[in-house]
Amino acid sequence: MQYMLLIHMDENAMPPASTDEPYAMNESYLAYNAALKKAGAWIAGDRLKPTSLATTVRMRDGKTEVLDGPFAETKEQLGGYYIIEAKDLDDALGWARKCPGTAFGTVELRPIWAKQD
Amino acid sequence: MQGDPRAAAERAARESYGKLVAFLAARSRDIAAAEDALAEAFATALVQWPRDGVPDRPDAWLLTVARRRMADAIRRRATADAATEHLTMIDAERREGAPETIADERLRLMFACAHPAIDPAARAPLILQTILGLDAASIAAAFLVPPATMSQRLVRAKTRIRDAGIPFRVPEQEELPERLDAVLAAIYAAFGAGWSDADGSEPAKRDLATEAIWLGRVVTAQMPGEAEPAGLLALMLYVEARRSARRDGGRYVPLSEQDPADWNGLLIDEAETLLARASALAGVGRFQIEAAIQSIHCARRATGATDWAAVLAAYDVLMALSDSPVAAINRAVALAEIDGPTAGLAELDRLASDRRIAGYQPYWAARAELAARMGNMADAAEAWTKAIELADDPTVCAWLKDRLATATARAN
Fold first, then answer.
1. ipTM for the whole predicted complex goes beyond 0.90
2. By CB count within 10 A, which of B5, B162, B212, B396 is most buried?
């Protein structure tokens, strides 16, 4: 099964960094990514720029509305994600537990809905 | 009785229902589909067995029919492509025929039902339904929940097991204590739901206690190296042994006034053996300690007295293991027996700020008894009145009223 790990955290608590250049991944994430890849569990994973750079789009009554800001104002924001291959929920939970994001944020695990071929 | 097909089907259901559900759902994790298929297989058995005779191995027969029903259901429901993999699997299993012995996967199923990703309120009901085949309505009655709510809770939990990828697996050693505790807690919750009807006026509830003991036996037999399953089983047996002594012609009899001659000695002996076995194994858990406390109370059978110092020491250990306000109340009662009511009441005062306590009847009953013993009738009457308001068991309520009336009469 495939699972998505959604890392929610308070982005205001993160050290300020310039968003116009690539960020330097910290040691714990580097090690975590290497472990995922070594185990063959890695499918994808990225950090997201803060919600101050989010744009929201929706179509209402045939008109497209484009708004600045995130979908919802929350105390914690989606800050990054992984997509992993796991045997079952326990296997995926094992990866989620090791995710550095659990130390300062909350990691939500969602099974990915397989689509018909 | 071999010739009576209904009795044979019922016997097969009792003995192998959970095994068959666990076996049928082990790979697909689709508990609802396994239950539906098995229900159809039982219905078919009731038609065919009277006509053709009861098969040599009823469980293997039921498994074969249920597998066929599962495959039929998938063919009916799914689009051709999506179902192929699942059907190939089931067809391969059917060609193998029913295995010589149907592997007992009930423990794995119980671990799935009590998985941390399952709503704690759904765990005990789920185990009762999948392992024992109890219907949602009787489970709902035992847990004091509307039937529709319980059905919805069960359906949601089964969907979660199937679609979130919750495995049928006994956890690894490092995770085992916590996960096993969830399974045992669910079984104990089922026991508690059955036991709240101590006078046995609701047979469905009383049966739940018996069923919980049976589940405790299953886990204990399957995990002989673990101490806590044996501890839980011992605890349930000690409590069960005193069931009939707890009532005297519809009147509630508290533990201190029970005649040990009314206790079931066979159950107590079995509990003692289990507890001794658990103590010899590594690891101390709350169920073992709670069983030990019951063992001390039951020792009154032989000694005629209660060793309150031992009770107090056991509650100290229990409170170091878990932050339970119930344990704290019982500890205060034990302390009062040793150091007097003032010391016990001081302990209870310290609990008063715990919000979980305010609506807990035994807390107010304990306060009332200790205050009365100190001669503080105003406080005692107030606490008894609160306890009476909170008591949902009518016999306990009547007993509390009686205590209040007796104490008031004595004071005047």
1. no
2. B212
